[in-house]
Amino acid sequence: MIKAPPTPKGFRDIKPEMAKGKREAINKIVSVLEEYGFVPIETPTIEFAETLEGKYGDEEKLIYKFTDRGGRKLALRYDLTVPLARYVATYNPPLPFRRYQIGEVFRDEPTGPGRLRQFVQCDADIIGDSSIDSDIELLLLSDTYTLPVGETTIPIGPLN
């Protein structure tokens, strides 16, 4: 019997039945976000390291950093917030800008129950509107879609 190579600690494969459940949950969340008028954006999984450095305090040590063959210092995105700030500074979208993003993020932290090094993050933001109405709307939005009673995360299988 041939033994397959393992995945790195804190990373995992998601089997078809769990991937289907994950996709269904994401689709429900997206439908609510778009009902509230949010538009999707996607940012690269890899950013220049200097874009992410200095933004996370002590947590900065958890950023996966590397140098590519061209000598550029790069990093895997730690969250979706700093890439959003870079996106807004780059493209200056009309304000208020109502965006959402669902994507993989990476943290080089100790693993354990419920703590992976690669996971999906979902963000919804209203940029350029500091009114209390925006805050209330985001609270209402977060209450619109809830997971079944007793679940706080989408179950997608055991940790490696």
Automatic annotation (TrEMBL):
Superkingdom, natural source: Bacteria
Molecular-function GO terms, alphabetical: aminoacyl-tRNA ligase activity
Domain Aminoacyl-transfer RNA synthetases class-II family profile: start-end pairs: 29-140
Alphabetic keyword roster: Aminoacyl-tRNA synthetase, Ligase
Aminoacyl-tRNA synthetase in keyword set: yes
Entry's family note: Belongs to the class-II aminoacyl-tRNA synthetase family.
Protein name: Histidyl-tRNA synthetase
Source organism of this protein record: Candidatus Daviesbacteria bacterium GW2011_GWF2_38_6
